[in-house]
Each structure stands twice: as structure tokens, then as C-alpha cells.
Design a protein that fits this description.
With about 350 residues, the protein is an alpha/beta fold. It is about 30% helix and about 20% strand. Helix 5 links the parallel strand 9 and strand 10. Helix 4 crosses helix 5. The protein binds S-adenosyl-L-homocysteine.
């Protein structure tokens, strides 16, 4: 049995062929599954075909263990079939609803300020498990989802094959049909993944977690910097923006006394130069056990002003969901559902783009 929610349109065609059905039947199955929500029953196929479909495909759903609701963001805790748990967040902006999706159980990137990495990576999520986070939130909330942020737990570039399938499913015109520009993927700077995404058919908006303007500082808070130094990351970012004629987002989390000086803002402006990119300043969502604190408001504004004066595009990410611990970098995963993942007990926070 194959979980239909993990199959791209093309892969569904291939599975249909392998069970002796015409691949073109995917053209009716996709809308029935994603838009009409009728499953197989209403499809105009012979009983024999319908029986074969029922024998070969399942419609998976993640088990929702808990939710935490606030005015601006709702957090969902999911149990996967092997007992692992992950979280996702429904972010409620004035301009629409956005789902922040997790891509791995745990994370190996080891960014010092991030709670999601406290559990090391147990496994990658399947494309079906990512699709089902979006479908599950749509169903449980009753909200029409307008956009997807691939910014939950995990490093998407470390699970890129499944993430690309997930994007392919979400954007297919006969399926959920999200616009490619309504999906944003955030990476800590895994350079080969940036090129692969740029050259794929699924080149969504790219955000790069920069958080420091030089490799010395970056390496001290983000181990990935030692593998992919900033010049390589910026070269890949430039390739992305030029190939797709799209602005790349550079995320910069404000860590008090660490990366928030005017001097670092100047370095950041110089690093960006004439690149088609803008800086998204993120308030740090501090956890009690974190060694980091968010920079004071005046310092954030000072940093912002230096960038502005130097002609850099800057936005400030509005923080959503801190009251329920559902903000950026603080979503948690657990390997057995017993700890870490409990909504309310964890200190998850998810900022909105
Ligand atoms: N692994 C990917 C996506 C997940 S994190 C990445 O690193 O980009 C999504 C964003 O939240 C990243 O920019 C991350 O650095 C940031 N982040 C992590 N912890 C945070 C925290 N406590 N407060 C605010 N942002 C945080």
C-alpha cells in the first residue's frame, strides 16, 4: 500500500502504470484527492479499477496529539506512525494564513541558539508527512491556507528529495495548486542544496539563515559555516537570485551583544553589495535555558537604520505565537512522543515572514 499523499503527479502516474492502470488516470485522481476531497469513490472508473486503487493506495493522516491556539499562531503536535513527534504552526497574518512545516525529526545543524536542534536528527520526514501537516492543519482549523513556509524543525536541504516532491505536490495545478511564490524554503546555508533547488522545477522563494556577516562569528554560532563559508553561500545566493530573477531573503536573528553591533550591520551591507537580496531581521525568541537573549528594541532599530542608510532592503519579521511558545527555532521534536514534543511544555516559537 502506498500513501497517496507522498506521490507527485508523475510518481502517481508511474505507480498506476505498475499496477496495470493508465498513468493518465492521475489527471482525475489528483483533483479528486486534493480539491474535491471525494477520495476514489466519485471517480468515473470501472469497478475493477476502483478496487485496484483501493487495494494499492492509502490516505494517510498524521495523528494530532495536541494543539495550542493563540490569536496569531496555532501550534500542532503530530505523532508519526513510528511514534516520533514533530510540530507545525499555523501563522495568521492580516494577508492570509501560512503553515510552517517541519522536514525532519530533530536536526543535526547544531545552531547554538535554536531549540529545534536539541534533539539530533532521528530521521527525515517523508513527502507524505509534510503534505499531511498542511492538509491536517487545513482540516482541523477550517482555514484556507494561502502559503507554506518550509521553516519548521529540520534542515530542508538535508532532505531535499522529499522536500522537492512535497513542493511538487503542493504546486501541481491539478492538486493544491499553491503558487511557487507562495512557498518559502529556509536553509542554514547548505550550498549544494541551494544550487539543486535553483536548477529544479520547484524553485520556491529562498531564505538563508545568515545571522552573522563574517565566518568567524558565524562559525561560533552555526557549525555549518565551517563547511560552507560565507563567500560560497553568497555566491550560491547570487546564482539563485540571478537565475530566477527573484529576491533572496537573508534572515538575521538579533542576538544581544553577539551579532547586533553597528559594525556588523556595516559588514552585512558590504557582504550584500549589489545582490538582489533583502535582510529579514528576526527577534530572537529566547528559551529559559538559552545562553542567548534578544537584542533590546533600540539596538534592533539601530541595526536596522545602518542597513537602511546603506541602501539595503530590510524587513522586520513580526513575531507570532510567542504566547504559546510557537515561534521560530523553538519547535521541538521527540523520538518517542514522550518528551520535548508536548505543546505548552516546549518552548516553541514561530516567527512569521
Ligand atoms: N534549518 C532551516 C529552517 C529552520 S529554522 C534554517 O536554518 O533556516 C527557521 C529560522 O528560525 C532560521 O532562520 C533559524 O535560524 C531561526 N531561529 C532558530 N532559532 C530561533 C529563535 N530562538 N528565535 C528566532 N529565530 C530562530
Amino acid at each position: 500500500m502506498t500513501d497517496i499523499y507522498g506521490l507527485t503527479f508523475e510518481k502517481l502516474g508511474a505507480v498506476l502504470e505498475s499496477i496495470g492502470e493508465k498513468p493518465s488516470r492521475a489527471g482525475l485522481i489528483f483533483p479528486a484527492v486534493y480539491n474535491e476531497h471525494t477520495g476514489f469513490d466519485a471517480l468515473p472508473f470501472r469497478e475493477e479499477t476502483l478496487a485496484r486503487l483501493r487495494e494499492n493506495f492509502t490516505f494517510g493522516r498524521l495523528k494530532c496529539l495536541d494543539t495550542a491556539v493563540s490569536g496569531t499562531a496555532d501550534k500542532y503536535l503530530w505523532e508519526l506512525s513510528d511514534g516520533c513527534t514533530v510540530e507545525s504552526v499555523l501563522m495568521k497574518h492580516e494577508f492570509g494564513y501560512n503553515v510552517c512545516v517541519s522536514t525532519q525529526v530533530g536536526c543535526n545543524m547544531g545552531c547554538k541558539f535554536c531549540v529545534s536542534g536539541r534533539l539530533r536528527r532521528r530521521r527525515d520526514l517523508t513527502a507524505a508527512e509534510m503534505t499531511e501537516q498542511v492538509l491536517g492543519i487545513g482540516e482541523l482549523s477550517g482555514c484556507r491556507i494561502d502559503g507554506i513556509s518550509i521553516m519548521g524543525i529540520g534542515e530542508p536541504m538535508e532532505n531535499l528529495a522529499n522536500v522537492l516532491d512535497f513542493i511538487g505536490i503542493m504546486t501541481h495545478p491539478k492538486g493544491p495548486a499553491f503558487g511557487i511564490k507562495h512557498i518559502t524554503l529556509s536553509t542554514c546555508g547548505v550550498v549544494p542544496g541551494i544550487y539543486e533547488l535553483a536548477d529544479s522545477e520547484n524553485a520556491v522563494n529562498l531564505a538563508i539563515s545568515l545571522h552573522a556577516p563574517n565566518d568567524g562569528l558565524r562559525g561560533s554560532i552555526m557549525p555549518i559555516a565551517r563547511k560552507y563559508p560565507l563567500p560560497e553561500v553568497m555566491k550560491a545566493a547570487r546564482y539563485y537570485s540571478e537565475k530566477l530573477n527573484r529576491r533572496v531573503t537573508l534572515e538575521y536573528v538579533m542576538l544581544d551583544g553577539v551579532n547586533d553591533s553597528d559594525e556588523y550591520a556595516v559588514q552585512l551591507a558590504e557582504l550584500i553589495g549589489d545582490m538582489n537580496a533583502y535582510v529579514n531581521i528576526i527577534r530572537y525568541n529566547s528559551a529559559p535555558e538559552s545562553e542567548f537573549r534578544c537584542s533590546p528594541h533600540e539596538r534592533i532599530m539601530g541595526f536596522y537604520d545602518v542597513l537602511k542608510k546603506r541602501g539595503v532592503g530590510v524587513t522586520m519579521r513580526r513575531s507570532l505565537g510567542d504566547s504559546i511558545n510557537a515561534a521560530c527555532g523553538q519547535l521541538s521534536a521527540s523520538a518517542d512522543g514522550r518528551d520535548g514534543g508536548r505543546v505548552g511544555a516546549s518552548d516553541s516559537v514561530c516567527n512569521a515572514v
